[in-house]
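Database export, one record per block. Field names are fixed; values are copied verbatim from the stored entry.
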Amino acid sequence: MLGCWSDPGEAVAVPAALEAGPAEPSAGGPALAPVPPALRVRESRPSFDTTEFRGRPPSLSVGTLKKQLLQASQLIREKINDIEGTKLDDHFLDLERKIDITNKAVTEILLKATEYIQPNPACRVKLGMLSPMLKIHNQRKASECLQPEGLLGDCMLKYGQELGEDSIFGSALTDMGEAMKLMAEVKESFDINVKETFIDPLQLVHDEDLNQISHHLKRLEGRRLDYDYKRKHVGKIPDNEITQAMEKFKESKDLAERCMFNFLENDVEQVGQLALFIQAALEYHQQSANILQPLQRKLRMRIEAASSLGGNDFMPQPLKRCPKALDLTTTSSAKSRGYEF
């Protein structure tokens, strides 16, 4: 077939220009070096980098295409005619059921855990793009995602400074704004910690281990269909092909079963990741409590200070006449009568 490699022991046709050996030297140029035999074989093979194959995906072999057609035919026959295929043992089916539930659980937990540590969808996107090198060198600039606590703290600091230290309310706003800024730093550290110790390892389990098991199960189903088709066409298909299909089916079944068993037996790793998640959450809440408890004591002191001052009686202030208002010789009474507070 066009584009397929030849076997190593197979003779390869060599172009006449290369077979002829070194070219004669030209009148003004050096002689060309002879082409080694290995290079002749390598250059004679078609390459996907040439213009003949560039932009064209490698075609399926006839055997692979035929196998896919047979599998599709068997699957349609089972669905339409309600034909029961080769049954797998209960132990295998139980492993497959647990893997299916685990796969769904990991997929949904990844989504919900990311929403838990960062409810803002835009910040979730930035959180997923965290670079490990940026986190090592400059953790504060890693996510560049403003936490809600930080935004609230900025607002309180702004108006607390505008009211000044003479205002008890303004001083309380400043105290709380500083605490909220510290809370934002703790929350950002918690986000990064959970992503590194829980979300990233769980994503790796989903992308590698579970995807590998899913690949083995799909291959197993394809080989089962191939085996069932050939098994039900005894006489039309050679016995050696049926035997080969049965051996491949058994091989895939053993491989998929071993992978599922090994994964389900490795619960220590998954439970360890959950423990790290809880540890990060516990540290976050402890640090938050360490920030909020002193703030609570400060606010109580502010309340006591404001209560000890007592209430002042309201004294209305008299209006003060402008100096021009005392000049009765002015011609315009509207200009001469001015008031100021």
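Remark 1: The beta strands are 320-321, 339-340.
Remark 2: The chain has a mean pLDDT of 75.
End of record.
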